[in-house]
Amino acid sequence: MVRTPVLVPFSQVVLKVHSRCDLACDHCYVYEHADTSWRGRPRAIGEAVVDQAAHRIAEHALAHRLPAVHVVLHGGEPLLAGPVLLRRAAEQLRARLPADCALDLRIHTNGVRLNEEFCELFRELGIKVGISLDGDRAANDRHRRFADGRSSHPQVLAAVELLRTPRYRDLYAGLLCTIDIENDPVAVLDALLELDPPKIDFLLPHATWDAPPPRHGRQAPYAEWLLTIHRHWLRLGRPVPVRTFDSIVRTLGGRSSLTESLGLDPADLVVIETDGTFEQADSLKTAYDGAPATGFDIFANSLDEVARHPGMMARQSGLAGLSAQCRACPVVRSCGGGLYAHRWRTGAGFDNPSVFCGDLMRLITTIRDRVAPVQPAAAGTGAGLTEDQLEQLAGGYGDGATVRALAAGQLDLTRRLLAAVGPAAGPAWELLTELDTEAPLAVDAVLTHPYVRAWAVRCLSDGTGGADLGPLAEIAAAAALRAGRSTEVAVPVRGGAVQLPTLGRLLTGGSGTAVLRGGAAAFTVRAPGGAEFRVAHDQPAGERWLPVRRVELPAGWTVALEDLDPYRDSHQWPAEQRLTAAALADWTGSLREAWELTQRDLPQYAAGIAAGLNTITPLRPGPSGRDVSAAARQAFGAVGIARPATAPILALLLAHEFQHVKLGAVLDFHDLFDRADQRLFDAPWRADKRPLEGLFQGTYAHLAVTEFWATRVRAYDGLRGDAADHAREQLARWRGHTDRAIDTLLGCGALTPLGERFGRGMRASLDRWGSVRVEAAPLPAPAAKPAELPA
């Protein structure tokens, strides 16, 4: 029996908005390699193509229930398309995607045309900007010149400097550097680091066995070049994520790659050209003329049809799709055979190792042997929970004492994570350990900030023990200020600002290292350029000092509206930027109303929320204004929410997301199911199947959703109208979904005894609302018309 391959949906789309370029880079795979299809394509994408492309992407996202789609506006040089066309593309994509599908929209440019007009547009539309830059001027000018030979370097530097300004810093997605072994690798890295990028990606030059890369008589020159970079990068303390290095470490640890050029993850990228034709990955243009073509276009074909194209399927077949030599290689799960295009050889097609095979072998094995993975300390055996507290949590609830016990366990876990990261930070770690002895409450106040743990986990997740240690100095500085310590602390200046977790952000300008000194009434910061700033401890927000803003609510709940911390992007939806005064007032008013409703209608959830939810991160509105919210597994105490239109929905989102926070804290210390069970299960609220943890999390969160709608239905008892009917529909839906999910959990055979206890507890809580009827009350019969009285 022949098994039909599973279709892998596309979650990444490259949309070509312009097919020409204003540079004449001699290493460009679009214009200088084997494929010549660009000559016959329209220069700019047409409006009809934009609209149909948005329709096809939305159609695909809806069919496959994609939680997010990543679209890169590309070229040629995409800025040549102009602001009007770029706006239309962004607005069409956002307008047409399903309400529950997020759009990650980016543009990749050579930067020479980037100006404030474009940046304002991208800021409005939420478009991140990646820049191609090959290093210092000498390195960049080797290939990236105008057609008349002029250097493009000054214009690119001006573009990057614009992105580094505080107004546009959040648009800055990173730098992409194509490797040339003639360039000095240390000079290249130093030049890129001077531009303070959020990340760097180094790309091997495109080549095939028919047109191999220059080697100058050396055996693995590209590995040598990258390993020199890697050694220098390690010596500098891993100042910025480098996608190639991070991907190697991740794949060596059995996890997914961050790039299609490494690992065995199925390719999920498709290209839409300016004429609306679908193509495979752009890199295939280096293989032979017409290599990326599929024969499909957006007007006649769906993305599902494209996904079944033999070329697409070949790039999605993992180990089975590699050559025999690759399948026998000891580092195949990390290498993945290299980039698909680099395997091409006339007569053998793509059934070959990469033309960079020797380089990849040396690079991967050297990094494997050079970097000893750092593992966090093993989790403790419990979070100090009593039997009664476990019983509360099993039912979906948890009073203040119970949630404070969870928080204590999370604080202990954060401390152990920092212990795995911190020693490499030197003086900052030493200061933090001193403060922990002298002023432990001040340290605790900073370490309970949810995004401290989020940062620490990111440092450890790549197996290298800390890709960015700068935040540890920020943590130590914030703790020192809280403790009243007057010592000097060296802190990083990134994006023109000094970040102080739980306190705020000081805009200093520039980049590098600043020196902070605390005091009884104020602290001072000496910026890298010598300018000094003074901030009083009670100073309100000003032009340079942006404090964390907190909302004080009844019943002792004070919550921070965190719109500053760089690691607040831990949620699956994009974070909102600094709230304006008007937006802050709207949030404050909505929270007060939502909290009153929570205390009244969800009292068994309210006490736990007040005890454990210390941070709300405002998110950007979802597509078409959809209500979106999220809880990050590694950020206990925080939820992300795009402020909804009504206070009741805000109350619902708070209760729903804090359920995820609580259950995540329980799972850090207790096994509720067999973690080795890899089965996927039906989740009634989703089209795709879910692993056990995902099903457990969703079921637990929907207990609060069911209770919320049950209380609304009770309030409408005997009443008719749109609001009442909507509440009844919602209760019927979520009660039914949650009931079926609990049955699935209890019948799966993989729950531990404590997991069974949670399943029974959830069943008991759900049954409380089984008697709330969802049928609308009948309209009363009209009263008899009274007899008319005689005149």
From TrEMBL:
UniProt entry keywords in alphabetical sequence: Iron, Iron-sulfur, Metal-binding, S-adenosyl-L-methionine
The organism of origin for this protein: Kitasatospora acidiphila
Cited InterPro entries: AKG_HExxH (IPR026337), Aldolase_TIM (IPR013785), rSAM (IPR007197), rSAM_sf (IPR058240), rSAM_SPASM_FxsB (IPR026335), Sulphatase_maturase_rSAM (IPR023867)
GO molecular function annotation: iron-sulfur cluster binding; metal ion binding; oxidoreductase activity
PANTHER family xrefs: ANAEROBIC SULFATASE-MATURATING ENZYME HOMOLOG ASLB-RELATED (PTHR43273), RADICAL SAM DOMAIN PROTEIN (PTHR43273:SF8)
Name of the protein this chain belongs to: FxsB family radical SAM/SPASM domain protein
PROSITE patterns linked to this entry: RADICAL_SAM
Domain of life (superkingdom): Bacteria
Domain named Radical SAM core: residues: 7-238
NCBIfam families: mod_HExxH (TIGR04267), SAM_SPASM_FxsB (TIGR04269)
